[in-house]
């Protein structure tokens, strides 16, 4: 407790002024004031006025330095760079989870890659092209044996209907698609292994 000596109030033991704390921490008085405004350090009422408790302030400053070293700012709030790193890690993990989910759907035949759909569509187009290219050879003799345009039209119509009936039986083969997926994944795994070895 402070005692008066010739009208002057003495400092309370264990408490000090900002400049004394700055000297203890090897900081400037301005930095001590900033730490006080930020809530890291706290002034206490003493008979000599507002002062810093040395033990409490030292502990608070050490905790502040630990938080800074761990990438956390005042009051344990992460620093902007630490937040960016954390958010980037979250985005990467989400992307990996989405890729894994899409690959699982692809293997189950629920989802198809555009290049595989294009390849299967191309197979269908080749089937149509082959059927149309075969028409002249199939029709030549029959049309030549007709005497009127109406008879020729009927022969052509009958053959076109046969081609359309054949094409209508063309169906999507999930096993063929699954085979394409497995081949692509095996190829990717082989090439990823080659890249890792280099």
Folded structure, characterized:
It is a single chain. The chain is mainly alpha-helical. It is rod-shaped, with a radius of gyration of 42 Å. The protein has seven helices and five strands; from the N terminus they run E-E-E-H-H-E-E-H-H-H-H-H. The chain has helices at 18-25, 29-37, 54-69, 80-108, 114-144, 149-168, 174-197, and strands at 4-5, 8-9, 15-16, 43-46, 49-53. The strands form two sheets. The protein has a three-stranded antiparallel sheet with strand order 3-5-4. A two-stranded antiparallel sheet has the order 1-2. Helix 1 crosses helix 2 and helix 5 packs antiparallel against helix 6.
**How much is the average pLDDT?**
79
Main structural class: mainly alpha
Q: Which sequence of strands runs across the widest sheet?
A: 3-5-4
Helix content: 55-70%
SSE series:
EEEHHEEHHHHH
- Report the strand count: 5
Strand content: 5-15%
What is the overall shape? Answer: rod-shaped
Work out the helix count: 7
Based on CA atoms alone, the radius of gyration comes out at 42 Å
- End-to-end separation: 75 Å
* Model regions low in confidence, pLDDT < 50 over at least 5 residues: none
Largest sheet: 3 strands, antiparallel
């Amino acid at each position: 407790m402070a005692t008066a000596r010739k009208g002057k109030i003495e400092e309370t033991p264990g408490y000090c002024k900002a400049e004394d704390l700055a000297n203890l921490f090897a900081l400037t008085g301005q930095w001590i004031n900033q730490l006080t405004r930020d809530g890291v350090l706290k002034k206490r009422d003493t008979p000599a006025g507002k002062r810093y408790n040395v033990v409490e302030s030292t502990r608070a400053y050490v905790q502040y330095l630990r938080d800074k070293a761990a990438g956390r700012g005042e009051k344990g709030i992460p620093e902007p760079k630490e937040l960016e790193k954390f958010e980037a890690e979250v985005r990467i993990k989400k992307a990996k989870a989405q890729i894994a989910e899409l690959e699982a759907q692809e293997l189950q035949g629920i989802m198809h890659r555009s290049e595989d759909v294009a390849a299967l569509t191309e197979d269908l187009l080749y089937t149509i092209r082959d059927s149309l290219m075969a028409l002249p050879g199939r029709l030549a003799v029959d049309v030549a044996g007709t005497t009127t345009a109406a008879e020729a039209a009927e022969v052509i119509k009958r053959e076109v209907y046969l081609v359309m009936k054949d094409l209508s039986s063309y169906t999507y083969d999930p096993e063929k698609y699954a085979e394409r997926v497995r081949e692509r994944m095996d190829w990717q795994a082989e090439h990823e292994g080659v890249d890792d070895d280099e």
